[in-house]
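User: Batch of two.

Assistant: Item 1 of 2:
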Amino acid sequence: MAGPLPLGDPAPADGRLPDGLPVDATTPFSAYLHVPFCRVRCGYCDFNTYTSSELRGARQDEYADTLIREIDLARAVMDEAGAVRPMDTVFFGGGTPTLLPAGDLARMLRAASDAFGLRDGAEVTVEANPDTVTPQVVETLLDAGVNRLSIGMQSAVPHVLAALDRTHDPENVATAVRAARDAGLDVSVDLIYGAPGESLPDWERSLDTALELAPDHISAYALIIEDGTKLARQIRRGEVAAPDDDLQADMYELADRRLSDAGFAWYEVSNWARPSTGSGTHLHQSRHNLAYWRGSDWWGFGPGAHSHVAGLRWWNIKHPAAYAQRLALGESPAAGREQPDQQARTLERVLLQSRLAEGLPIDDIAETHRERVAELISDGLVDAASALRDRRVRLTLRGRLLADAVVRALTE
């Protein structure tokens, strides 16, 4: 289970948005549908997820109906605020969405589409554990309107998967990719590097295996030790070593080099996409994640999910049983909300947009900090030509390795 929810103002029981909220109906709108179920809790994970022994009063077989109640509430709330618009992207995340029957995912998607509509060409993604993907599951998702599958590979090396408490069969990754490919879905694979005991050759093997699958998109995330996780406790007790920063930097550079050589282009610090076979210019980027990084509007459905509309942020109560109880009473499951001030919004914009290959407009940086761009160029962290020609902060490879330092320089 994840850590505590943020502090914030109380959220109204009816979920109503504040009067006068400056909604812009031209802002792209997305939906995130959280499925909080996992067979096994991975030692590094701090997401809001639950194994069967932790549900205490919540049932997986009733979850789709519960979440659809929140969709109905969302439609009424957005309608009253004049904020209804078709969805540009939909993302089923977790947890393991494919632990639910594919028909339940289809019903949830249909309810969201009925409530808000889907724009032509909308991106609809389902995250999946490789062990849960079959041709029948993929066919049901395809028929429902899903067009992208994001497969949690993490590693191709058994001892690395064991260190991460990942229990899937590595051979099933190729089976899952093949099933998605045969159905015509876009395919993304997720990797993690820097696990205890993982060497540079181990990581190279995982990269090579992922590339052999010929996906459209690859995410490669450095392992981060989150407080409260099993892995954090193991490191604190000295049972396993903490990730080595220098080794993780070497792993990132290897990933960028191998992926670039294979025709992938980075578009966010931890994400690479392949050009389409059509025009050769469109990339198979995760448009849903880009909506987050660019500050679009989205409604997060499910326990612990976060939402953002016109600068207002709110988050749902965490436990599935409490979430279901609120909705059964006709109440919003929101636990709290906030409207960040200008300083907080600027910090967030710098934090998120500076990680993108398209870069951050220099004019979006507080005026008192713009002079620091020159220092970052001098330190080799920001591309000089982009700053001078386009007035955008674009990270160099070294800058991507030190992205947090760039953010601090531009905000503190």
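Item 2 of 2:
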Amino acid sequence: MSFDLFDAEEKVLEQAESLRGLLADTPPPLREGVEALIEAFGRSVREQRRLVKVSDRLQAQLASLNHELARRRAEAEQALSDLEAAQDSLIQAEKLASLGALVGGVAHEINTPVGIALSCASLLADSTETIRAAYQADELDADRFERYLDTAGDSSALILSNCRRAAELIGSFKQVAVDRASSERRRFDLGATLRETLASLGPRVRQAGHAVTIDCPSGIVMDSHPGALSQVIGNFVINSLIHGFDPGQTGRLSLAVSQTGPDQVRIVYADSGKGIPESDRGRVFDPFFTTRRGSGGTGLGLHIAYNLVTGPLGGAIALDPAPGGATFALTLPLRAP
């Protein structure tokens, strides 16, 4: 279209040149005015041609820039997708590592009562075999039999109490492990779930010498995801053990539960450790942020807790700004969305 327009203008210029010749005998003012008009029209045509060329060049550059922008956007989207996939993989690995730590700790804890029960059972078996031999040889007297009864009674009591202890540990760990390994939603007693979670972490806490307290009213029933809640509390405890206390330092870990409404519960976890520096408080829930990068810290523990609380649990999580120790407050609906 522009070239057709310029062709018409060129024809007008040719006609103007012819007109210039016809004006040779006209008064100078008229001839000069027409010549000035012809010159101005010629300059206008040349400027339009230049602008069209500039416009064509700019359009070509713009098309090239749009193509490059689309390519880089596709690369950025792919990089973001790869990053999200890698982050999901790391988070899953962190969850499995947390469950693995529970397995090791509970296995170590179960070993004590099972070992005691095994020793007592072995002693009882030896005593029974000895008393059997004495009976068969007709050498069993009342004093010897009474000593055997005392040994049998003490051994049986120790075996029974330690087997019960092992059964309790196995039951707690089994429920916690099943909940964490699945995203099942079910009704559960909040206090029982919190106690089971801390029982499964007990070996690591006691090994560090910390005291643990739970203040939870009875009868609070939630329709939610106990595995997610257990993971959150477990991450709090592990975070305290790794970051909250210096080696050899002992302290206190506490859970306080209160029902703040007919459909809402508040869980406050706190430790008496050295706390979180003011400069780090705004980043504790960021992925991969850790102050123990070279000492086993991944920076995903509190990030996972944040995602679980605000995701499947449908609640909110906040870090208490008060100095001294670390305190996290969870506000959760009794019925998850």
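The chain has a mean pLDDT of 80.
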